[in-house]
Amino acid sequence: MADILIIGGSDAGISAALRAREIDNTANVTMLVADAFPNYSICGLPFYLSGEVADWRQLAHRTLGEIQGTGIKVELNTRALQIDPKQHSVLIHRPDNREEFLRYDRLIIGTGAEPIRPSIPGLNNRGVFLLHSMDDSFAAADFIASHKPERALIIGAGYIGLEMADALRRQQIAVTVVEQMPAVLPTVDRELGEALGTYIESHGVEVKTGVRIQEIGRDGDGLRVTGDGDFDRRVDMVLVVVGVTPVSELATMAGIATGLRSAIVVDRTMATNFDDIYAAGDCVVTYHRLLNADTYMPLGTTAHKQGRVAGENAAGGQTLYGGSLGTQVVKVFDLAVARTGLRDHEARVAGYHPVTVEFSTWDHKAYYPGAHRLTFRITGDKVTGQLLGAQVMGHWQGAVAKRVDIFAMALYHQMQVADILEIDLSYTPPLGSPWDAVQMAAEQWQKHRQDA
Ligand SMILES: Cc1cc2nc3c(=O)[nH]c(=O)nc-3n(C[C@H](O)[C@H](O)[C@H](O)COP(=O)(O)OP(=O)(O)OC[C@H]3O[C@@H](n4cnc5c(N)ncnc54)[C@H](O)[C@@H]3O)c2cc1C
Asked: Which of 380, 145, 162, 389 has the alpha carbon at shortest distance from 289?
């Protein structure tokens, strides 16, 4: 009976634990969780803070009882302090302050990421929040309930910043979003980011791009936020969401190799450089399927898949992580924006000959009520015709996410853009067209490929 010890009980940790028990139901699987929230969906925090999810308990993917019912031992409020790879043991700190060593045959590290704290003076002021953990969201929720803020400022217009702009507007709070890059959502092309910024403004959000915040000062009961140029706003709360950094100190202290952005280096079996130690999720580098190289891609979808591979291999299986394509989607008010694969500049750096073509059309036959415009940006290789990436923006009920997933599937199989025209996709007027919007966009790319 193997002792499999897992550090972390979020997306990566739970996926590893469940898979390990599926592969070997005699294995003793123990999951250490630093807080009291195993298997909670932190992806759902903006929807809890918006009020769309009424009770935070609904964010649990599984209850503690359900997890334990699968035979996994869960140690809550228990922190791993030190890994000793030679002794195959982990020093832990229990909630009653006791410290002890736990032995393992195989260890899986799923310690995740933590929010970046930019070096802006005033970050510790009351009313300034980060958003990553359940506790972070409780702190923000308590503040909103007790202080009834009228104005909020969000530093960072990535997907979490934008979800939070939507969430706070739903709470009737005036919102300013500040982004240092030229457009919001810098993970997609500027053309889409600018259109998205204009759209968000139409929902009463002030959008300031190209501005770096310099200081958050106190101003009576509120906060004064100053930035580049003459940027100066008085607000009641500030949310800082400028990205995450891997939690990899435990690994580093144990001599486990780290690489890009200090993330733990793993191979496609999710093994580290130590025998019997695996790692998965936001704390590791991520193999990118198109680049055939490591990237850092802290996403829930990735963490689940990597965790499953780590769990399977730790339990004696032999499987490989298929690789990420960076597929992601965000919903802001009524718009969804999604991407997969490489953007033009990323493809160029990787040695491709990219051409990107933008195309706009209806999500379904325009004569059927409720049709919405979708905008596509497709990137393919001019020389080989290979699909390299796709971005889609449109009404969230226009199946934006599932349409980008068609491109993700095509990328997974290294298909040509032209191949997309041949796929037998479904059709009925209320939901699509005989040539689906993704096929029309692919056809436009084909036409423009010749001119590029
Ligand atoms: C607001 C928000 C919205 C998001 N939305 C999306 C989305 O829509 N789509 C998407 O794909 N991704 C989204 N993400 C990202 C996604 O949530 C993360 O990629 C995912 O949670 C990573 O899972 P993980 O298990 O690797 O790490 P984490 O979720 O960071 O969990 C780490 C775990 O390790 C534990 N831990 C850490 N150190 C120790 C220690 N020393 N001892 C014991 N336990 C420890 C923690 O308690 C926790 O259980 C979002 C993230 C946030 C914050």
From this structure: 389
Q: Read off the pTM.
A: 0.96
Residues with CB under 6 A from ligand 1: 7-13, 32-35, 42-43, 45-46, 79-80, 110-113, 131-132, 160, 247, 250, 281-282, 298-301, 303
Residue keyed to tokens 């796929």:
423
pLDDT tens readout for residues 426-450: 999 999 999 999 999 999 999 999 7
Would you state the pLDDT for residue 450? 77
Q: Which helix (H) or strand (E) holds 226?
A: strand 222-227
What's the 121 CA to ligand 1 centre distance in angstroms? 27
Residue 360 is given by DSSP the state E
SS3 content of the chain, % helix, strand, coil (to 5): 30, 30, 40
pLDDT at 1: 84
pLDDT beneath 70, residues of the chain: none
List, in order of start, the domains of the chain with CATH numbers.
Answer: 3-42+58-113+245-314 (3.50.50.60), 128-242 (3.50.50.60), 328-451 (3.50.50.60)
Beta pairing class for 293-295 and 286-288: antiparallel
Q: Which of 7, 43, 185 to mutate to test the pocket of ligand 1 (most atoms within 8 A of CB)?
A: 43
Q: For residue 32, what is the DSSP state? A: E
Q: What residue type is assigned to position 19 of the chain? A: R
- The residue whose C-alpha atom lies closest to atom 23 belonging to ligand 1 is 11
113-115/244-246 β-pairing: antiparallel
